[in-house]
């Protein structure tokens, strides 16, 4: 099959770190254009809006959207209505109902919508899911702590309404948990810590229950300096499974399992191509459901103001 002509939208950190390198390796896609208000991609046609790009280049069949979630629905809806396949960065939107609207649009226009979860492509996730199928799961402990100043320098959108705050990385953990556990879980307690000058939390403590008394505890924090932690520990009657480094490492009872190298975004683009070829969509909203539940159920407390750069004079 000829490569699918693709336009990339929202040229910022993740577009440059991951999408461009993966697209340059992909046989499935031909990156022909980019749309971004303030940035461009060398060697392709550049536009400042998606509408302008799709009008000027009608042979573009797919778009991949890398802007923050608050800006995604309008652009995705426009592209789907023009009959384009759409891949969404995580989280797929700022609300559940806007993504459900997109799924309906994709179905009615006969195109593919892929709500991607890059952490599910981490090399340890598939083997962890397979191993857990044979075990009785007792307890899951998630620790996801990173330094927002290092990973999201100056990204004020993350602390604006709809930016999710610490759930921006935390939803990656939830995307793995919902992939590896063979049963549904539901939130039964949550504590959210908001900087007094921000609209989204900087830390969260969550508790979930499973159908047979299983417990899932998750601790997310954006204030971690020094070593960073992206760990999921699953205690079972057959041993303890540890996924660390965001799913890049897997150990059973402390013994490392051999895994292929990390290739999350290559995996996402291969999946997007397979969905297009099959005429399917993939829109699993379960990680975003848990985040929405945390905002519904969470006790709120406030902490000191957060600034990416220390205020002048401090
Ligand atoms: P970013 O660099 O701050 O934003 C990407 C680009 O989106 C911006 O450079 C901007 O380009 C465009 N944009 C369009 N509307 C915007 C708006 N309303 N506010 C701010 N920018 C807007 O963010 P990012 O780190 O790439 O993250 C984008 C998405 O990827 C998020 O959903 C995030 O969760 C996900 N993601 C990020 C990472 C990571 O390591 N950073 C990892 C995995 C996934 P123009 O101004 O040129 O339009």
TrEMBL record:
Superkingdom: Bacteria
Pfam family, one: GFO_IDH_MocA
Residue stretches making up the Gfo/Idh/MocA-like oxidoreductase N-terminal domain: 5-114
Entry-linked InterPro entries: Gfo/Idh/MocA-like_OxRdtase_N, Gfo/Idh/MocA_oxidrdct_glycsds, NAD(P)-bd_dom_sf
Transmembrane segments: none
PANTHER family with a match to the protein in the record: BCDNA.GH03377 (PTHR43818), DEHYDROGENASE (PTHR43818:SF7)
Protein name from the UniProt record: Gfo/Idh/MocA family oxidoreductase
Organism: Jiella mangrovi
């Amino acid at each position: 099959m000829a490569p699918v002509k693709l336009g990339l939208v929202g040229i910022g950190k993740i577009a440059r770190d991951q999408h461009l390198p993966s697209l340059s390796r992909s046989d499935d896609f031909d990156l022909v254009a980019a749309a971004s208000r303030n940035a461009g991609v060398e060697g392709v046609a550049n536009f400042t809006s998606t509408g302008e790009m799709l009008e000027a280049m009608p042979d573009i069949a797919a778009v991949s959207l890398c802007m923050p979630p608050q800006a995604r629905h309008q652009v995705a809806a426009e592209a789907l209505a023009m009959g384009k396949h759409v891949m969404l960065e995580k989280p797929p939107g700022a609300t559940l109902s806007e993504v459900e609207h997109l799924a309906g649009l994709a179905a009615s226009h006969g195109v593919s919508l892929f709500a991607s979860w890059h952490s599910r492509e981490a090399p340890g996730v598939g083997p962890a899911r397979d191993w857990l199928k044979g075990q009785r799961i007792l307890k899951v402990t998630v620790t996801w702590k990173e330094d927002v100043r290092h990973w999201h320098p100056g990204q004020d959108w993350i602390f604006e309404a709809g930016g999710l705050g610490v759930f921006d990385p935390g939803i990656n953990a939830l995307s793995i948990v919902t992939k590896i556990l063979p049963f549904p879980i539901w939130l039964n307690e949550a504590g959210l810590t908001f900087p007094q000058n921000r609209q989204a939390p900087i830390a969260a403590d969550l508790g979930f229950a499973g159908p047979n008394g299983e417990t899932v505890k998750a601790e997310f924090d954006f204030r971690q300096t020094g070593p960073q932690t992206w760990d999921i520990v699953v205690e079972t009657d057959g041993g303890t499974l540890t996924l660390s480094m965001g799913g890049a490492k897997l150990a059973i009872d402390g013994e490392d399992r051999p895994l292929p190298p990390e290739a999350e975004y290559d995996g996402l683009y291969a999946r997007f191509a397979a969905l297009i070829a099959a005429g399917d969509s993939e829109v699993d909203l379960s990680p975003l459901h848990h985040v929405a539940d945390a905002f519904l159920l969470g006790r709120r407390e406030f902490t000191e103001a957060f600034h990416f750069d220390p205020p002048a004079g401090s």
